[in-house]
Amino acid sequence: MEEKRRNRGQGGNSSQKYATGKHKAKLGSAEWAKKRTRSIQRMMSRNGDIPANLRNDMERELAAHKSTINEKTFQRRRSAMISKYHMVRFFVDEAYTMHHPHAETYISLYGTIKKDDDEDATEEEKKTAAAKAALAAERPPMWKVVESTMEEGPDALRQLRERRSATGDDEASAPQPRSRDSRPAPRKERMANVIAKQNQSKNASKPTGDRKAAPASAGEQQSGGKTGGLNRRERRRIMRETMASTDKEDDEGGFFEL
């Protein structure tokens, strides 16, 4: 009775199995490759009567396991280095060098630093390694801008690289097209304005006694309303003067007129 109880264990289940205390490595892992490498090396060192074909197979398997161990070790060390030194800071440094604005002065992140405090030190001791000094060095202001721009995506980084001004206001620095309001008035409007001004000056220069003169006939009033009280010769003279003045204005300020 007691033997059956001991076989069943503490939970009373006879099918319960106790662990042997040995960890079995997973096939294909670095630990399994190391164990298999040690076992092959022991077999080759203890048994000198192994046939040549089996020895060749064991040597090829041993070389394959060593290559797997080296690759796994490198990947593990690479992951540790990325988590220790690189990560976000390294990627921001890379984006800083690639997407720094072309129109602004570039400040290097990995410049060589010289120490002049110790006069007896050699040249090699005065120069600090660039990578080591860059870890503790203060980043330029543009580095923070690039770090915040990375969250917006690659398009924002390209816009940062191609921006025109340091404030980021590209619309203010870009040449503005000439609006229609700033264009000079058409030639016909300028001619009409000149004729109207001349008529006003003539009316102002007339004596006051003319106001008592008899009104003109209906036909003269109608023709005077259209021509402004000028005959054909005067109108032609005014048109020639107006054409000359407009041509002069076009030569001076009409270069940008579309």
From TrEMBL:
Amino acid composition bias (Basic and acidic residues), ranges on this chain: 178-191
Function: Involved in rRNA processing.
GO cellular component annotations of the record: nucleolus; preribosome, small subunit precursor
Keywords on record: Coiled coil, Nucleus, rRNA processing
GO biological process, one term: maturation of SSU-rRNA from tricistronic rRNA transcript (SSU-rRNA, 5.8S rRNA, LSU-rRNA)
InterPro entries per UniProt: Efg1, EFG1_rRNA-proc
Source organism (scientific name): Beauveria bassiana D1-5
Domain of life: Eukaryota
Protein location: Nucleus, Nucleolus
UniProt keyword Nucleotide-binding present: no
Protein name, entry field: rRNA-processing protein EFG1
Chain intervals with Polar residues compositional bias: 196-206
Pfam families in alphabetical order: Efg1 (PF10153)
Ranges for region Disordered: 1-37, 159-258
Family designation: Belongs to the EFG1 family.
Acidic residues bias locations: 248-258
